[in-house]
Known about the structure:
By secondary structure, the chain is mainly α. The chain has helices at residues 16-31, 37-46, 53-61, 64-74, 88-95, 97-113, 123-144, 149-158, 161-169, 171-184, 188-195, 200-210, 215-222, 234-249, 265-271, 278-295, and strands at residues 117-118, 121-122. It has a domain at 16-32 and 114-295: Hypothetical protein af1432, CATH 1.10.3210.10. The chain contains 16 helices and 2 strands. It is globular and about 55 Å long. It starts with 15 loop residues before the first helix and ends in a 5-residue tail after the last helix.
Amino acid sequence: MTMPWHTGTEPKVQSSESQLIYEEIIRQINDLPTLPEVVLRVAEMVNNPRTSAKDLGKVIAHDQVQTARLLKLVNSSYYGFPQEISKITTAIVILGFNSIKQLLLSSAVFEMFGHEKIDGFQRIDLLRHAIGTAIASRIIGRYVGHPELEELFVAGLLHDIGKVVMDRYFHEEFVAVLERSADENITFHTAERDLLEYDHTLVGQMLASHWRLPDKLVKTIENHHPPASAGRYSREAAIVHLADILARAKQIGSGGDNVMPELDPWSWEIIALNPQKLEPILQQLEEEYPQVVSLFELEE
């Protein structure tokens, strides 16, 4: 059964079956663990102009796991600091608040993906695609002068997180979408709209809300296919929309299909990117991707 699609955050329930499906999605997401409390707290504090590096360091230091993980990332070859950084406060001062938030969020999110191979599809390919989209989002943001580059990175990283939830908790439906996409040579998004009463953007939006992420991220995840529906955050959604396509163009990972989606013309207008910048953006994406992969010690 196919549901008439919409642009709001709540599905238009058309039947008792639709309502049951929606309630099951809510139940499964509510059973998922939230992000570590320290990650949520840091995300809140970064937006407070009164927060100091010392304040942020104290909060992170209360979680030994996150502290160890963050120091390991900061001392990786990706940053190449000449001396080992042993204090969280030093890392915060050097990298900045937003970079620290991005590292903590990214590290926590990576744990969700896993490396399972299902019916010929490897979940790590979703992660690779997410990383490529995250990097491309940040690069596009640089070229258009967006003030929150690290937030664009996180938005790109999370744009397809709903697919991971679908794979884990609605596995049969997920595989059916993969198969429909392959058989008919259509995008994953088109296939799920044909087969299901929900899609990965709705699931991703619900998970982001469950994680208490900022509304900007929630709206961007939900509307990265129809960016105009993101309201005040439509430019961020449009940037992620374009970044998704660029990551596919460079064949970085997989979004669950082998089809290049069309670029939404409205997105191009609101991003206001000079077309001549596409080639250097793609080049930078190719250069930065292996560096970020090495940062999080993913195998290529």
